[in-house]
């Protein structure tokens, strides 16, 4: 019997499909929080979603090229990514990829710079440049999100538009228990930042679909080539994610030993604990 | 010059990248947005391959499809040792063809399971997984007996052939389709041997052999 998600998850918006993949015609089906959903684009162009068990119609919003719904009472809007609406950006889904892992494990891996030289060798890192330098993390209670700033890492190929290695600056946001947005130095324009988002659809506690957003400044490369770059990286992460044990993220600070580089992960686990998230995690014993 | 129409996460495309890397053949890549773009079903791609399937390899104007057929082509044309697809021993050539067919069966099961889980394809997941397990049991047994007779590769030769390259990718990616290799120790040892072939290259989801072992 699946566990009942607490309010922090039940009342949140959750991604369930790339918007472009929802057409008119027969309903398509997916799983969200152990609940079977059927969805299609109605004749008026609006996305329709209903629960298969009760037949209830659910609320839908389309944001950042994806469709989001909620099984509870969601807030008025989703977290904001203002850069997405800048006219010269190339926005794209890089796919919605099924992964046998919990959503929090996937988010935490996304926040981790320590694995770059070992898992993304020659792209996002390479030996001997393995040090994660000191960076800042804050939990903003006002915005209800985690912010990691001043992250710097040497990357041989930070983006498809990069033709040489460079020290890349990162800013990470975690504005949703299962979503993270990354801003990184844009090789094509020093004054701006490329935006990469990972939006996890919790199908069950231990399986997700990872919906990948890229919002890039890049006049040179095609969408196909930029998608390929991101899929190559995520494809390298996938077996690492799927071999994590336990699959659910332990929130007890003593459960897994962190190092200094894991500062953002520590904040993330604490934040999930404080929000009372109980789904995809192993809650701290009371 | 060779051009490979390629999708990074495709095991059948990887087969050719692996073969060309081992043979030291240079090639260009044209990325095809198989997912989410479904570009392999687009008008321009269907003109190249009416079957709407990756990979496609173009060599000096010659357009080839079907990953196993292309393996044979690459081996016959570019392998100066003549070992990857030997034609002077009819029994061995036939044996290689048997494993090429086996590779297609692995694609039909293990790859189908992976597509279902990873890219939301609508295949019968349990059927695909149990089909793959059936094949892997056969393959594991075959490799186990081969090892007992002092052989390391799928076919009766003292060197790897295109059969090993053909069967490697979707076996190595099976866990992405929820197919564990825990019960197939001979397969696991064979996968490691393939990873140690000179010129081996990895893909997303397939790791190279550990460097620590190489250094020792």
Automatic annotation (TrEMBL), chain A:
<dbReference type="InterPro" id="IPR044043">
    <property type="entry name" value="VanA_C_cat"/>
</dbReference>
<dbReference type="Pfam" id="PF19112">
    <property type="entry name" value="VanA_C"/>
</dbReference>
<keyword id="KW-0560">Oxidoreductase</keyword>
<feature type="domain" description="Vanillate O-demethylase oxygenase-like C-terminal catalytic">
    <location>
        <begin position="101"/>
        <end position="274"/>
    </location>
</feature>
<dbReference type="InterPro" id="IPR050584">
    <property type="entry name" value="Cholesterol_7-desaturase"/>
</dbReference>
<protein>
    <submittedName>
        <fullName>(2Fe-2S)-binding protein</fullName>
    </submittedName>
</protein>
UniProtKB/TrEMBL annotation, chain B:
<dbReference type="InterPro" id="IPR010987">
    <property type="entry name" value="Glutathione-S-Trfase_C-like"/>
</dbReference>
<dbReference type="Pfam" id="PF13417">
    <property type="entry name" value="GST_N_3"/>
</dbReference>
<feature type="domain" description="GST N-terminal">
    <location>
        <begin position="1"/>
        <end position="82"/>
    </location>
</feature>
<protein>
    <submittedName>
        <fullName>Glutathione S-transferase</fullName>
    </submittedName>
</protein>
<dbReference type="InterPro" id="IPR040079">
    <property type="entry name" value="Glutathione_S-Trfase"/>
</dbReference>
<dbReference type="InterPro" id="IPR036282">
    <property type="entry name" value="Glutathione-S-Trfase_C_sf"/>
</dbReference>
<dbReference type="InterPro" id="IPR004045">
    <property type="entry name" value="Glutathione_S-Trfase_N"/>
</dbReference>
<feature type="domain" description="GST C-terminal">
    <location>
        <begin position="89"/>
        <end position="212"/>
    </location>
</feature>
<dbReference type="InterPro" id="IPR036249">
    <property type="entry name" value="Thioredoxin-like_sf"/>
</dbReference>
